[in-house]
Amino acid sequence: MIADELYERIAAFGPVCLGLDTASTYLPPGLAEKSGGIAEGVYAFNRAIVDATSDLVACYKVQIAYYEAMGLEGMRAYARTLAYVRTKGIPVIADVKRNDIAATAEQYAKAHFSGDFEADWMTLNPYLGMDSIEPFLDEAIRRDKGIFVLVRTSNPGSADFQHLTVDAASGRKGPLYMAVAGRIASAASRCTGKNGYSAVGAVTGCTLRTEVSAVRALLSACFLLIPGYGAQGGTAADVASSLANGNGGIVNASRSLLLAWKDSPDGASLFAEATRAKTLSMRAAIAAEVAAAGAPGEK
Amino acid sequence: MIADELYERIAAFGPVCLGLDTASTYLPPGLAEKSGGIAEGVYAFNRAIVDATSDLVACYKVQIAYYEAMGLEGMRAYARTLAYVRTKGIPVIADVKRNDIAATAEQYAKAHFSGDFEADWMTLNPYLGMDSIEPFLDEAIRRDKGIFVLVRTSNPGSADFQHLTVDAASGRKGPLYMAVAGRIASAASRCTGKNGYSAVGAVTGCTLRTEVSAVRALLSACFLLIPGYGAQGGTAADVASSLANGNGGIVNASRSLLLAWKDSPDGASLFAEATRAKTLSMRAAIAAEVAAAGAPGEK
User: Fold this and answer.
1) Taking CB atoms and an 8 Å limit, are B111 and A65 in contact across chains?
2) Does the beta-carbon distance from A108 to B69 stay under 8 Å?
3) What percent of chain A has pLDDT over 70?
């Protein structure tokens, strides 16, 4: 069951989710030429990064926007990247943030849970309401896949709508994102694995600790996909507080890991090694904060 | 300027937006085989529909989910469909409902405003906030493109979040979708054409007339993309009230027009003619309601 597989990966390898959000400008000099083109270069880059980090991460996340921006060749590189991670038996998240009315949602579920673009998990946007999420969930259950629904994003503009105070169905007032979280928690109860986590997860950008605690408590059966580590400014201490004894969530970093080669003297030739070293540091920093948070009497 | 082009198309050809949401199951028997495959058949179908209706519609809208569901071959059919409409000089909307944090939004804007997947307009989801919309708007202004932002969708589940009462920045209480509409109205003022309409439009599913009036008043400079006509139950009278003297909006129908051949005795061979006839009826029904609404003393 997909949620148990992710739980066991996190337990064995730690909570890092390496984001293969590979812009063509991230490639070291010469790689595109050597690979026979930009999209080919992106795929070669991803493959080398996966080979160098597969024992350090819980999973990979592929941000489809970077591939769509390269057109049809980019979509081929996207498909090949997903397939490569899946042949290694490692979970891969399609970061597609899709959503639409039910009939269309079924098409998106088919698109990203089967065929050329098959992934294990996909990210969804909740704005259209729960009848636009349920077709994904039905398909996820049928195919043993999972979804992560946007609850609270890490960008400054998340305040525009996600933080507006709403009168929720429960009669309680709170920010919109907590109303979304409440509906996600209900959906999550449909498909919980033996480790207590569901095939329905949530994307929660960590900022204030009080927010993190409230979200973590409400979504106790959900894996949290925690963006914003590294290039976006999140720290290991921030994210450790979103985890539950080091499990129950994955911490994404993309740019800061993929561009590690730029800080290394021979990084252009040893780019995957540079990413490996930075991924190791990230994993260690989170593990240290998780250990500190778990140690009695410490803070 | 893109908004003026759409205004003039609506003025000349009426407000119908024909949705090329072409599921593989919509093809008449034999077309896929004759075309050399399912994705090829979808492209051949779309091309015939466009040839048969180009003098009856304001624009076309292509729902990418149906193409993503066919994998790489589907994405090729998507690209070819967009290109075919654009060579005819008719506006085409990429119905992609994309959204992400700013750096990723830039990639999506590049993806759908240039290259293989170039469209004239694209649909966006506002959940992440205005800093996730602005990169699209910047790129739209730079390339003379347009965006339609989801405000109020037509599915029953839209009530889950879009209808929650929020305390908006203005201090006024109202449904979330009106808070979104308020921000969209501000953004729209950045790029208004000589006909008074902006390159920023809004997707507004019409149900109650009081809702329609409030949205129409707030978004007076925005084209409204009105879904739900036909197969989803919207009537000509419903949509006429969302238009402003027959302009200022486009009315989408997809399934009801694409599947017109199923109601016609020789529809399988004359599928494009069946869609043409049904598109003519739809356009006439809307025009009659617009005329009735505009006639003094009538209702």
Assistant:
1) yes
2) yes
3) 96
Helix residue spans in chain A (DSSP H): 2-13, 31-35, 38-53, 65-68, 71-87, 102-113, 134-143, 158-161, 176-188, 209-218, 236-240, 255-258, 271-294
Put simply, the answer to whether A161 touches B176 (Cβ < 8 Å) is yes
User: What is the CATH classification number for the domain harbouring B109?
Assistant: 3.20.20.70
The confidence score (pLDDT) of residue B296 equals 61
pLDDT bracket for residue A265 (50, 70, 90): confident
Distance CA A184, CA A162 (A): 15
Cβ atoms within 10 Å, residue A242: 25
Question: Is residue B56 situated within a structural domain?
Answer: yes
Q: What is the pLDDT of residue A167?
A: 80
In angstroms, the separation between the Cα of residue B295 and the nearest Cα of chain A is: 36
Q: Check pLDDT > 90 for residue B230.
A: no
Q: Domain limits at A154?
A: 2-289
Given the residues B34, B61, B88, B97, the one annotated as active site: B97
**Per-residue pLDDT at B237:** 86
Q: Chain B within 8 Å of A167 (Cβ-Cβ)?
A: yes
Chain A residues touching residue B70 (CB < 8 angstroms): 115
- Residue A196 in any domain: the answer is yes
Q: Which residues of A touch B162 (CB under 8 A)?
A: 127-129
Decide if pLDDT at B269 tops 90.
no
| Structural domains of chain B, count | 1
pTM value is 0.96
Q: What pLDDT band is residue A298 in, cutting at 50, 70 and 90?
A: very low
Residues A99 and B212: their CA atoms lie apart, in Å, by 23
Query: Looking at the domain assignment, is residue B297 inside a domain?
Result: no
Residue A43 has pLDDT above 60, yes or no: yes
Whether residue B125 and residue A76 make contact (CB cut-off 8 A), yes or no, is no
User: Within an 8 Å CB–CB cutoff, is residue A117 touching chain B?
Assistant: yes
Cα–Cα distance for residue pair A127/A296, rounded to 1 Å: 41
CA proximity to A227, closest of A208, A255, A253: A253
Residues in chain B: 299
Q: Can you give the pLDDT at residue A299?
A: 39
Residue A297 lies in a domain: no
Give me the interface pTM, i.e. the ipTM. 0.96
Residues 72-91 of A with CB under 8 A from B: 72, 75-76, 79
Q: What is the pLDDT of residue B299?
A: 39
- Strand B224-226 and strand B249-253: the pairing is parallel
Instruction: Select the residue from B110, B114, B128 to test the A interface by mutation, using most A Cβ atoms within 10 A.
Output: B128
Catalytic residue among A34, A88, A97, A145: A97
State whether B71 and A63 contact (CB < 8 Å): no
Instruction: Please provide the average confidence, as pLDDT, over all residues in chain A.
Output: 93
